[in-house]
Design a protein that fits this description.
heterotrimer, A mainly alpha, B mainly alpha, C mainly alpha, B: mainly alpha, Methane Monooxygenase Hydroxylase, Chain G, domain 1, 4 helices, C: mainly alpha, 2 domains, two-stranded antiparallel ribbon, 73% helix, 2% strand, globular
Amino acid sequence: MEIPIHVLVFYLVALVVVGSACIVAFSRNIVHSAFSLLGTFGGVAALYVFLGADFVAAVQVLIYVGGILVLILFAVMLTHRISDIDITNRTVGRIPGLVAGAVFLGILVYAIAGTDWAKAREVAFEPTTAAIGNLFLGEYLLPFQIAAVVLLVALIGAITLSRKEIKE
Amino acid sequence: MSDAYLPILLIFGVSALNAVFMVALSHILNPRRPTPQKAMPYESGMIPLGDTRARFSVKFYLVAISFIVFDLEAVFLIPWAVEMRALGWSGFVAASIFVAVLTAGLVYEWKKGGLDWD
Amino acid sequence: MDLGNVASLSLFYPEIVLAGTILVLTILDLVVANKRAMAYLGLAGCLVALGATVDLYGTEPTLLFHRMVALDNFSLFFKVVTLAALVGAIWMSIGSGEVRQVHLGEYYIVLLTCGFGMFFMASANNLLMAYLGLELVSLTSYILTGMLPHNRRSAEAALKYLIYGGVASGTMIYGMSWVFGMAGSLDYATINAAMAEGGGNQIALFMAFVFILAGFGYKMAFAPFHMWSPDVYQGAPTPFTGFLSVASNAAGVAILIRFFYPAVSTLGQEGAWAFQALPALQWTDLLVALSIITMTWGNLSALNQRNVKRLLAYSGIAHAGYIMMGLVVLNNDGLNAMLFYVVVYLIMNLGAFLVVMIVANATGREDMDAYRGLAWRGAAFPAVCMMVFLASLTGLPPMAGFIGKLLLVAAIIEGQFYVLAVVAMINTVVSLYYYWRIVKTMFLDEPAPEDGPVAATASAMPLLGALMVLTIVLGVYWAPLLDYTTGSLGFFMP
């Protein structure tokens, strides 16, 4: 049986994403968790490439890996004695949590497999940036401008909350 | 699967293999003779004083968040830039409004001292 | 009627005015030294936006900006409610001691942006716009919760809110992606058409809607997504807590109705909404169960509270449960009752928080003991007003809250949800205990020697008086409000 190379690569990428996500969730060392996010974000960028979304894949690497991951690493590395905190959840315990997770996974897989998802036309590997540009300034103009407002308020909030308040 | 992406996959694979190979090889070939002086944290030859875990300034976070916000602005402008000629003046006005809102944010950050390092 | 980008601008004046006010305040904050002027400017901006909104009544229902937002009586109603809440919150903030500690410029800018986001939550016709509106409101809420400087409780509340909100948002957008996958579009009308054809596995549909309900329900503080609510209400500055409790609840109701009705209902005969059949999974049962859990959990948790703001938070959760009862019925009566209750809740809850703010200003404390003998400590008027608001929250005649609850229960009983009605009645009786414990503390307890006199700020008194009068007047003569809400039920369904 010949397995096409792209299926093999897809499963490899999926392994990277899920494996990194498992390390993020289960690792006892928060620095390991933060670094494993790199695998997750990079893997998701590869998945975008599989779907033919070249612009989104590039943006994913630029923003998530280049910005957000760096921010998370700043937070982890610069927080005083962050390794001293014990990350556990004693309320429910491991076994009930694992069972609940497995049941949930089963339901989700059943739902996904049984649905007739609305497929667009076949994935075409053509550059999408121009199409996105047309949409941004055409149909999706309002979300484009509201995104500007969201960014503005995020900036103002960051300035407000990180200000050094002088205690009188 | 488009052939245009095959080089990326190849680069990824080769660099991953390369990195793993180098680290693994140096780990295996390493003669293990640790001394106390070799185990101390490196500080350009000086003897380290005190705990490395000092409290870092919150300015780092502000720089990182500002970077993300303005990086996102650039990313939003890229699709417009690609199609700029076809979109004409109306596209220009819309993109100007976008940039104006974020410029207001930049001026705000500047005047509030967010760009100072002290 | 679908309008393109440029043509929509003429119908978009309320948002443009509000956005303009925000940008003007941003510039002014850098130039002007007297920050108190910013509050008045914000107030003026809100009033102009209110005028622009009222001016839009009479235009035919339209979809603006390539079907992104809808302009109809429903969205205008919620814009009016949001602006009223903003005006109330700014007025409260002017007199608040807590707010004086924060950087006033940023406080008002972020508060107005929160209201701006609520406009989009209420009028969104597309899942992307709904998500953006929700995120804008959430982001501004996190910032405003954590704004008090050197206050551990405030910072902790903001952190809890952020983490909880992030998880809820992620869940919601996952559900939205499933809906997109099944329907092929983010537009509500297209989703409705796709669902009507019977697209999608029933389990998948159910899971997707549960995920989306998780996101919307977190905003409204339904159980079991309400865990953030007590901490945030307690930690945030009181004027913002008042605003959050009423406006974010209202916006949550709007976005919930706007999404669920076009998606799970079809317009039946005589203009009444009919339940679209999803035979495998009973929607009403889910909503009924959720409503019962929310009401009961909120009321039972409020019984032991010593801190008045936390108590009002749990009471807010219970009220979200009451409002959800209107959603269960899925017809015009239920919707009408929900909208009426939203307005009444705005008036009475804002009033209750105003009294809390007055007491906190004078004594610096928010726990029940600070209210001992309030009526005899120079704050007779606030104490009487608090009694009126608490009576209204319980649902006693002749207050407006009674009419609101009556409408909701009447809609339920007509829809034959008898169990729900009985549970609602029992919960009302339970809530009587903790609301009236505050009244008893205010009037019947002797003030201890260390409790000082409580003077109400001059700016708070007119607002307090107006809210109290409205509560009583609406309890006796509610017909105009009912006509207004009935008129607001027309929302755009192409």
